[in-house]
């Protein structure tokens, strides 16, 4: 099972997306900043083998294509982020495709934190309606994996350590239980395998230069399912990095490709 996410930076990249989907045999393709994407052109290229997940209750700023063999239901716009339930290898996965507020407009992360809280609340509500389902957030979080809004108890409550997530499962505080989520960033981010980050930003007095804004975060049950998580530097013959940073001709973000083995799902 392969999941693909790309912030398109309002570029028309149908041919490049098609190549990425075909070359990597992508099952679920999700996007942000899709204003200029020609979905009709992309559908023609994909020869009707994929379907668009559509909502009926409001405008979304993220979008998703899935193979026609994948069933989906209850698509909705939660704080303008596409949220639905996908059946991935017979496992119901409640997924939000996220594009959170930009760090330059929300430097302290308060808006991102509020949005995450709303998304997590909605996902947990859906989970109660679908016993045995699990939650996933995928997309452009516009913050790094170790920023407060990603790890705070009443926000995403994520850990980098699958052993911790699988052992504790929840954290209790003041009479409330907060499910622990797993973020695989620490396991896969590495200069040695050229997986430094998805976005390059060198300005300001405090910068990491490479930032891992595009991420996947999952319930503890899916922690062992994530086999690989990497940012693509090239699609076919097209190089996405020029002069050591993402090529703005395509996008200022690198696409994220996640490989999962759903048979390793726990707690079923």
Which features would summarize this protein structure in a list?
alpha+beta, 20% helix, 7-stranded mixed sheet, single chain, 21 strands
Concise synopsis of the structure shown:
The protein is α+β, with helices and mostly antiparallel strands and 268 residues long. It is built from six helices and 21 strands.
SSE blueprint and pairings:
Elements: E1 2-7, H1 14-24, E2 28-32, H2 39-45, E3 50-52, E4 62-67, E5 72-78, E6 81-88, E7 91-99, H3 110-129, E8 134-140, H4 148-151, E9 158-159, H5 162-168, E10 170-173, E11 176-179, E12 181-182, H6 185-188, E13 199-201, E14 209-211, E15 214-219, E16 226-231, E17 234-235, E18 238-239, E19 241-242, E20 245-246, E21 256-260
Parallel strand pairs: 1-2, 7-8, 9-12
Antiparallel strand pairs: 1-21, 2-4, 3-4, 5-6, 6-7, 8-15, 10-11, 12-15, 13-14, 16-21, 17-18, 19-20
Helix pairs in contact: 1-2
């Amino acid at each position: 099972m392969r999941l693909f996410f790309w912030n398109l930076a309002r570029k028309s990249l149908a041919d490049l997306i098609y190549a990425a989907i075909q070359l990597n045999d992508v099952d679920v393709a999700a996007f942000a900043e899709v204003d200029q994407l020609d979905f009709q052109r992309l559908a023609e290229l994909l020869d009707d083998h994929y379907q668009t997940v559509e909502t009926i209750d409001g405008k979304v700023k993220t979008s998703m294509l899935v193979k026609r063999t994948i069933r989906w239901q209850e698509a909705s716009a939660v704080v303008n982020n596409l949220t639905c339930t996908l059946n991935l290898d017979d496992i119901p996965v409640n997924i939000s495709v996220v594009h959170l507020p930009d760090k330059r407009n929300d430097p302290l992360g308060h808006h991102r934190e509020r949005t995450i809280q709303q998304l997590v609340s909605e996902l947990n509500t859906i989970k109660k309606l679908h016993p045995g389902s699990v939650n996933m957030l995928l997309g452009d979080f516009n913050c790094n994996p170790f920023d407060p809004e990603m790890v705070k108890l009443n926000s995403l409550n994520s850990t980098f350590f699958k052993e911790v997530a699988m052992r504790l499962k929840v954290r209790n505080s003041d009479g409330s239980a907060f499910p622990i989520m797993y973020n695989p960033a620490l396991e896969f981010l590495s200069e040695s395998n050229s997986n430094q980050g998805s976005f390059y930003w060198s300005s300001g007095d405090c910068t990491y230069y490479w930032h891992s804004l595009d991420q996947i975060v999952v319930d503890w049950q899916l922690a062992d399912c994530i086999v690989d998580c990497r940012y693509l530097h090239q699609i076919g013959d097209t190089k996405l990095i020029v002069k050591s940073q993402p090529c703005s001709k395509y996008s200022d973000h690198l696409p994220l490709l996640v490989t999962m083995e759903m048979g390793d799902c726990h707690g079923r």
